[in-house]
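User: Hey, my collaborator sent me this sequence without any context and asked if I could get a structure. I don't really work with proteins. Can you help?
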Amino acid sequence: MTESVPKPVRSSLAPAGLAFLAVTSIGWGFNWPATKFLLSELPPLTLRGGTGVVGAALLALLALLRGQSLRVPRQMWPRLVLAGLLNVTGWMVLMGLALVFLPASETALIAYTMPVWASILSWPVLGERPTPLRALALVLAFVGLFAVMGGNGLAASEEKLPGIIMALAGSFGFAVGTVLAKRWPLRMTPIPAAAWQIGIGCAPVALAGFMLETPHFGTVTPVGWVVLVYSTVVQFCIAYVCWFAALSRLPASIAAIGTMAVPVIGVVASAFALHEPLGPGQIAALILTLAAVALATRG
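Assistant: No problem. I've predicted the 3D structure and written it out in structure-token form, which is a compact way to encode the shape of the chain:
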């Protein structure tokens, strides 16, 4: 028997969900320039898969130290595998490869067309009808993104086209995973759920890296090791746990729109860390995107 589509219930937004969403956005925002920098020292599959496997192991250890069981109910396995493939494997591989072809700022911007797909899918799948405020938030957010894209001179050249396609594909896959996570929730505590999803999602990526790439860890610089630790601990052990915790407390459309702050943070951080462009377009995008997030959380 299939589960019925849950009826949308209008209620005040959980403050804890908004706090978890803020931590997620900051952690993922700074990770874009971090990953772009690390790709100059390590190949993409090894980097993305390896950090994910280590992050999943650390999360599993943290769960055990907190007395939380890693046992997965039998009926949850299909949902767990599907979430791992959509939210982790596809995202890690496609975004990692997109960063090879695109600057970190442009990759982040294209990646976070995700709220468009999530908002569209949330209506038929979850019954979350868009409110006027959420619709306005989405419009403001994408005006902000287009401002940044204009400032960076984004052009679908032959050199950039593979990166653009991979970033869009990863974005759509993550949106599908976000909506399905609300449609068929895992019903697990956040830390074990994140550990399993990241482990399941990153293990095949790490295996592919082992078979197809030749990493040279001996040539990684001291700064590279520091950034690698940040990418592993913050991206996986903190941001992903906060994301799943936020998703369990907020409507999927609001959670998705709330992450629109990520590309703005990524653009600003990339400007300072990697000397990527930061001009009037990026500043306008920052204002518009933060306004969009504020409207989304009130809608």
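In plain terms: The CA atoms of residues 27 and 295 lie 22 Å apart. You can pass these tokens on to your collaborator as they are.
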